Amino acid sequence: MNTFTAWCNSHLRKAGTAIENIDEDFRNGLKLMLLLEVISGETLPKPDRGKMRFHKIANVNKALDFIERKGVKLVSIGAEEIVDGNLKMTLGMIWTIILRFAIQDISVEEMTAKEGLLLWCQRKTAPYKNVNVQNFHLSFKDGLAFCALIHRHRPDLIDYHKLSKDNPLENLNTAFDVAEKYLDIPRMLDPDDLTNTAMPDERAVMTYVSSYYHCFSGAQKAETAANRICKVLKVNQENERLMEEYERLASDLLEWIRRTMPWLNSRQTDNSLAGVQKKLEEYRTYRRKHKPPRVEQKAKLETNFNTLQTKLRLSNRPAYMPTEGKMVSDIANAWKGLEGSEKSFEEWLLSEMMRLERLEHLAQKFKHKADIHEDWTRGKEEMLQSQDFRQCKLNELKALKKKHEAFESDLAAHQDRVEQIAAIAQELNTLEYHDSVSVNARCQRICDQWDRLGGLTQRRRAALDEAERILEKIDILHLEFAKRAAPFNNWLDGTREDLVDMFIVHTMEEIQGLIDAHNQFKATLGEADKEYNSIVSLVREVESTVQKYQVPGGLENPYTTLTANDLTKKWTDVRQLVPQRDQTLQNELRKQQNNEMVRRQFAEKANQVGPWIERQMDAVTAIGMGIQGSLEDQLHRLKEYEQAVYAYKPHIEELEKIHQAVQEGMIFENRYTQYTMETLRVGWEQLLTSINRNINEVENQILTRDSKGITQEQLNEFRSSFNHFDKNRTGRLAPDEFKSCLVSLGYSIGKDRQGEIDFQRILAIVDPNSTGYVHFDAFLDFMTRETTDTDTAEQVIDSFRILAADKPYILPDELRRELPPDQAEYCIQRMPPFKGLNAIPGALDYMS
C-alpha cells in the first residue's frame, strides 16, 4: 500500500497536491481524476463539486469510464466500493492504473509488458557480479539489482564495486536515496520490508522498477540501435568467415587435383606385367583411400558457397566472387577433368595388362620353339660339310644319298617352324616387348643359320648326285624306315610341342573348345600307335636280316640318323604328356567355372544396387522439385534418404570386394549385367551429391522463409508456379518462362517498350551472371524481396547516429559501452579516423 501511495504522489506532486491515506483520499473522486489527467496528459470531464454521495459516485464513475476507454477492463471494481473506502478494491484499481500507464507501454522484443520489463532488467544487469534477475521479488531483496540498474545508466552516481551482497539494507538505502535525489524517483519501497519479508510483494517491486525503466527510457533507443548494428556486424563476420573457408578449401582441392593429374596422365611403365600390376594396386589405393575425402571436401565446398550466396542475398550484400581460378565452375571443370583422367588411366592399365600378358605368352612360345629348333639344327652344318661319302662303298653311297634326301625332307618340314619363329618375333616387336633386342638377335641367328643350311644342303646334294653314277646299291628296308620315320618323328615333335603349348582363355567357350580339340586329338592316337608299331617293325626286320646274314655295317641305316629308340622315347613322351594335358585343361576349366561364378555373383549384386541407386535418385529429384509437403517435411525426408544411403554403403563395399575378385581373376566381360563398377561408383557419388545439394537448397529456402517472414503458403505458391513453367524439371527457367511465371503470380509486366525495360532490369537481378537461366533460389529471393522489408543502409547509419548522440563521428568508448566486446572491436579496427570539422583525437568515421 505504501508503494502505491508513493507512486500516486510521484505523479500528483506535479499538480501540486498529494494523498496521505489511499483508501480515504480517493473516495470523492477528485484526486483520482486529477491523477489520471497527470499520467495520461489528457483532460477528463469537469468533476462535480458537491459533497453528497451521488456527487462522489459520479466523479469516480468518470474516472473509471476514462480507464475503460483506454482499453482496460475493470473486473468487480465499482464506484460504490471506492466511495465506501474499500481498501482491496481501491488497491486493485490503482494496480490496474499502474499496469496500464506505467508498465503496459514497456516493449522489449515483442514480449508482454512484464516479460519485457524482466528482460530489460536482465540485459542491463548482465555484466554485474552477484546480480541474477529472474523475478520481481527474491531477485531484488539484496538491493544490488537496483544499484546495478542505476550504475549501468549513471555510473557517476554509485561506486558499484564497493557494494557487498552481505549488506542488503545498505544497498537498498543507497539505491533508493540516489534514485530519489538524482533521478526524481520517490521511495516507493521500505528496505526493512524487503529484507525481512520471505517473499516481497511482486506488484510493488514491478511498480518501482517501472519507474527506473521510464527514467532510463532514453537509453533504450541506444540499446535498440546497438542491437541493430550487432545484427549487421554479426552477419558481416559470418560472411567473411565463410569466404575465407571457401578460399582455403578451394585452394586445397585444386592443388590436390593439380598434383594428382600428372600421375593419372602418365603412361610410363617398365613394360613388364609386374610393373603394371603394381600401378593397378596403386590406383585401387587411390580410389579407396585418397579420393573419398576429396569427394566430401568438394560437397562441403559447394554447400558453403551456396550458403554464403544465400546469406549475402538475404542481407542485401553483393554476390561473392571468388578469386580468379577458384570459381565453382573452375572447380567443377577441374573435377571433371580428374574423373576423365581416372577413366582413361584405368582403361589404359587394363589394356596394358592384356597386352603384356599376351607378350609374356608369346615370349615363352618363342623361346620354346627356338629351343626345339636349335636342338634340331645342332650339328647339322658339320654333317652337311662332311666328306664321308667319298670313302664309302656303293651301298654306303646309296645310303648316304637316301639319307640326304630324308634330311632334305626333314629340312622342308622345319621350314614352317622357322617361319613361325620369325612371325612370333615380328609380333613381339610390334607389341613393343621389353626384351625385343635379345629376341631379334636370336631370331636373326636362326634365320642366318637356316640360310646356311639351305646352301649346304644344295651343295651336298650336288656332290651325292655326282657320286651316284658309281654307287647305286640301296637298302630297301633302311630306305623305307627313313621315309616313314622322318614324318612320324616330325609329327611326334609337333605333337609334343602342342601338348606343352601354353594357352590363355577368358571364357568357358574358349576352354571348352580346347578340350574338344584335345579329345579329337586323342581319338587319333590309335592310328598313330599302329604307325609307330609298323615303323619299329622295319627296324626289327633289319636287325633280323643283319643277324641272319652277318652283313658288315648292315645295322647302320645309311638313310637317316633316326633310330627306333628315338621314336620310342618320343612316343613314350607323347603318351605321358596326354594325361598331363588333360589335367592342365581340367584345371583351367575349373578356373573358368570359378570366374563364371564370380561373374554371376557380381551381376546379382550389381542388379540389386544399380536399380536401388536409380530409385533413390528419382525420389530425391522428386523431393527437390518441392512438390511434396512443407520445407521441413522435405528436409526431414531428404535426411531420412541421406541416412538410408549411408546405411546402404555396406552393399557398395561388398560389391567393391567382389569387383576386386573380378579384376584379380582377369575377368573383362560380364554378359549377366549391364552395370559396371565404374557406373555404380559414379551413380553412388552422384546420389550423395544430389542429396547434399537438395538438403542445402531446402535449408536455404527455410532460412529465406524465416528471415524474410514469408508464409508456407506463399512459399508453396512460389514453388508451384516455378514448377508449372519448369516443364523439363531442370530446376531453372528460361527468360520467357520466367516472365510467364511472374505474370501468373500477379506481377504486372507491360507488353510495351517500358515493360521490356522493366523485365530486363528484373532479369539482371535474378541472373546477374547472364547465364540465360533463372534458378529457383534466385527466383525465391526476388519474390521475397518484393513482399518483405529488410534492414537498409540508412537504418544502420541512423542507428550509429543514435549511439553517437547525433555527432558526425563516434568514439571507441561509446562503441565498447553499447556493443558486445567482439563486435565493438570489429568496428574499431575497420572504421577510419574522422577527418571532418571539430574532430577530436580517437574519433571514428561511422559513415564508412
UniProtKB/TrEMBL annotation:
Belongs to the alpha-actinin family. This is Alpha-actinin, sarcomeric. Residues 1-102, 111-217 form the Calponin-homology (CH) domain. F-actin cross-linking protein which is thought to anchor actin to a variety of intracellular structures. This is a bundling protein. The keyword NAD does not apply. GO terms for molecular function: actin binding; calcium ion binding; protein-containing complex binding. Residues 713-748, 754-789 form the EF-hand domain. PANTHER family: SPECTRIN/FILAMIN RELATED CYTOSKELETAL PROTEIN. GO terms for cellular component: cytoplasm. Residues 232-259, 390-417 form a coiled coil. Keywords: Actin-binding, Calcium, Coiled coil, Metal-binding, Repeat. Pfam families: CH, EF-hand_6, EFhand_Ca_insen, Spectrin. The keyword Calcium applies.
